[in-house]
Automatic annotation (TrEMBL):
Name of the protein this chain belongs to: Biotin-dependent carboxyltransferase family protein
Domain Carboxyltransferase: 23-281
Pfam families assigned: CT_A_B
Keywords associated with the record: ATP-binding, Hydrolase, Nucleotide-binding
One GO molecular-function entry: ATP binding
Superkingdom to which the source organism belongs: Bacteria
Annotated SMART domains: AHS2 (SM00797)
Keyword Aminoacyl-tRNA synthetase: no
Parts of the chain that traverse the membrane: none
Record-linked Gene3D superfamilies: Cyclophilin-like (2.40.100.10)
Presence of keyword Ubl conjugation: no
Amino acid sequence: MIKVLHPGFYTTIQDLGRKDYQHLGVSVSGSMDLEASRIANAILGNDEKCAALEITMVGPKLEFTCDTAISITGANLSPNLNGIKINNYIAINVKKGDILSFDRLNMGFRSYLAISGGFQTEFVLNSRSMYKGLTSTFKLQKDDILKIENQTSSSNKYASIKANISYLDNHIIEVFKGPEFENLNAIQIATLFNKEFTISKENNRMAYQLNELVVNNFEDIITSLVLPGTVQLTPSGKLIILMRDCQTTGGYPRVLQLSEASINVLAQKFTGNSIVFDLKD
C-alpha cells in the first residue's frame, strides 16, 4: 500500500483510458502524456496498460507501507526518496517506510510515477483512469490509501532508459486537416500557420484554450464527433484544443487535428507557453 501524506496540486491515477465507450458519451481519459506513462511502465517490466500516477506541476508526498519498485518519467519535478535526490527514467527499489516527495518543477508539466505491477485501484469500464462523475474520486486526497502489489525485490532494479526528453521543450505541434479545414479562407490559414499562439490560463485535462484569436466567419455546424487532439474554432475566434478528458461531441468547427505525439507534447505545456502549428499531409 501507499499512503498519501500530501496529494500535490492535481495528482490522479491514469492508464491508457477507455477507448470503446465514446458512443455512450464516455470520455477516453487516460494519461495526458501517454508516451511518458508507457516508458515508466516499460522500465519496470510492466504491461503498458498498467495504471500510473499522473502528477501535475506540484508533486505529492507518499509513504510506502511495503517494499516495491518505482520509476518516474515525463516532467522533472525534482523527486527525492527520504530526502535524497533520485533520477527520472530509472528503476528504483523502495523499502517499507520510505517517503517519496517532490520539489521544484524544472522541466515539463506532468510527471508519471509507475509502480511494479501497477496501481490496483478502482476499475471502471476497463480502466482505472480517474474521471469526475464516473469514478468515486477524480484526484488524490490527503490520507488516501493506494493499493499496490507487494514486491520483495525487483529484477529490474538497475533498469534505465536513455529517453529522448527534448519533446518537453518542443513548441512545434504537428497537426492534420480537420473535417472543416476546407472551409477556412487563405487569411485564416495563414494566421493558423504563421502565428505563434500562447496557452491561456484555461488549460486542464479536458482542453487547452489559446489566447490569440482567428477571425471566424463560419456558419454553424451540426453537433459532430470530436476526440482528443481536435482543434475547435469558436464563434469568438478562440481556438480550443481538446485533451484526454474531452467530451465526445461538439458544435464548433473542427479545423485541425493533433497527431498523437503532439498531444503528448502539449500535455507538457502550461499557461504562457508558446506553440506553433505545423501542418502534415
